Amino acid sequence: MKKIDMHAHFFPRITREEAARLDAATAPWLRIDEGGETGNIMLENRAFRPVYRALWDPALRIEELDRHGVDLQVVCATPIMFGYRYEGRAVMDWVQRMNDLALEHCAYAPERLKPMAQVPLQDLDLACAEASRAKATGHVGVQIGNHLGEKDLDDEQLVAFLRHCGNEHIPVLVHPWDMMTDGRMKKWMMPWLVAMPAETQLSILSLILSGALERLPRSLKLCFAHGGGAFPYLLGRAENAWHCRDIVRADSPHPPSHYLDRFYVDSAVFDPRALRLLVDTMGAERIMLGSDHPFPLGEQNIGHLVAQQPGLDEAARRRILAGNAIEFFGL
Questions:
Q1: What is the pLDDT of residue 184?
Q2: What is the pTM of this model?
Q3: pLDDT at res. 265
Q4: Which residue range forms the structural domain that includes residue 297?
Q5: Is 42 within a domain?
């Protein structure tokens, strides 16, 4: 079956000097180890995350896609590249440079790799302008972080950006980042294991319970990473709360389950029981293959979970592995 992986990341060969032009202390850069196979994403002189060559080398990426039987992959920024901490105009050159580098990365194999852009989300006008520019230059969508400081997705600035994307037919992937933590999740990658799913659930429920989805056009194509985080498992809790507490339903005219046809999720849940719940909750028509490649927390055999999932008929399997992504991105 055809496979389209719609959630994968890249990080270009950004030098320390190039990062310093934005901010020497906090802008990320790539240190490649001797031998060229491994490296680290760096913040100033501190290692942020160990990485390997597929993250920046499209030739190795294609080799790995061939091994996994993946026909096409949509790649987007590693979230640390977003630059949301800076004033919008100050970061605009950085954002456009990163988007141009994403195009260069995918130009190695344009029939196999498609880029999604990043935007300066902190400035609405600039974010809308860059999303439209990116679409015109070959990006198939936009990836945004799930919040902007203390602003969740129901904030009117972020809703206005989503409205622009809906009106301009620009697909949006919402990716958790800058995860909530007060210091209690300091070991064992707890922010990634606990806070990251919670961030995604917060984003989905903030759009639903605020009534924001009522104000957004149905033309908006919206996807949440990592299987929607904790949302599918806790939908029943939110549904019960909407029916039983007026404070929960104050701004949402319908219960959360009413809005399941307004967004997509990816399949990066790693367990057949979790995927079964996801299909039961969202429907096979709202799930796209996503791997989080090439990070260690991603699916190590891309598409294997969906391909081997018990109980999925062939039509549902085909939709999740490729058909839904073709429709979502207009491929």
A1: 84
A2: 0.96
A3: 98
A4: 4-9+53-329
A5: no
Tokens of 27: 């802008």
Give me the number of domains the chain comprises.
Answer: 1
Is the residue at 44 inside a domain?
A: no
pLDDT at site 180 = 84
Torsion of CA 244, 248, 249, 250, to 10 degrees: 130
Q: What pLDDT does residue 67 have?
A: 97
Residue 19 lies in a domain: no
Residues of the chain with pLDDT under 70: none
Q: What is the Cα–Cα distance from 243 to 51, expressed in whole angstroms?
A: 46
Select from 168, 176, 164 the least CA-distant residue to 80: 176
Domain CATH number, residue 208: 3.20.20.140
In a domain, 305, yes or no: yes
The residue among 72, 65, 145, 137 whose CA lies nearest residue 103 is 137
Cα(290)–Cα(75) distance, rounded to whole angstroms? Answer: 10
User: How far apart are alpha carbons 8 and 295 in whole angstroms?
Assistant: 9
Distance of alpha carbon 86 from alpha carbon 48, whole angstroms: 19
Q: What gap in Å lies between CA 117 and CA 131, rounded to an integer?
A: 7
Indicate left, alpha or beta for 228 from its phi (over 0: left) and psi (-120 to 50: alpha): left
pLDDT in tens, 114-124: 999 999 999 99
First to last CA, the chain: 17
